[in-house]
Design goal:
Layout: H1 3-7, H2 10-48, H3 50-54, E1 75-84, E2 87-91, E3 97-101, E4 107-110, E5 113-115, E6 125-132, E7 138-145
Parallel strand pairs: 3-7, 4-7
Antiparallel strand pairs: 1-2, 1-6, 2-3, 4-5, 6-7
């Protein structure tokens, strides 16, 4: 039996197709495993930083009498206490400190006037809107200076 007739035979074609489908299924399974692992890691880290994300009760949700104040995870209002490059530390309601990260694409305004990050100063009263990250910090999207 020569190689050419083996390659063109129906059993070989079926075997080769089956192996190809099996490899494709394994690839899809592995991709799902990677996505699931990343989602689980994000959920775990987010839960571990719940208090920093939301300022919830330190004793957990089952002991809310210990501390009542929740902070908004998508923003903060307060005064700047430190500016360190793209990171700003804000003293918010109840003297809580919140770390805020900025990017070069952030929108900063005083009234209608656009500002840059270098225009911000310690003790400026600001409002920040952004998204929480898994480390309990806010990724700023917009800053309004008063």
């Amino acid at each position: 039996m020569d190689i050419r007739s083996l390659i063109t035979s129906k059993p070989y074609t079926i075997l080769l197709s089956s192996v190809g489908v099996l490899l494709l299924l394994l690839l899809v399974f592995k991709a799902g495993e990677i996505v699931g692992y990343r989602k689980a890691t994000f959920s775990y880290r987010w839960a571990e930083n719940y208090h920093r994300n939301f300022g919830g009760p330190r004793g957990g949700l089952l002991h809310p009498e210990e501390e009542r104040g929740f902070i908004n995870s998508h923003g903060i209002t307060g005064s700047i206490i430190k500016i360190d490059g793209p990171t700003i530390i804000i003293k918010g309601q109840g003297d809580r400190e919140q770390t805020v990260h900025t990017t070069s694409t952030i929108t900063i305004r005083r009234g209608r006037d656009p500002l840059t990050l270098t225009d911000l100063h310690v003790d400026d009263h600001i409002v920040i809107v952004g998204d929480p990250n898994t480390d309990g910090q806010i990724e700023a999207k917009f800053i309004r200076v008063f």
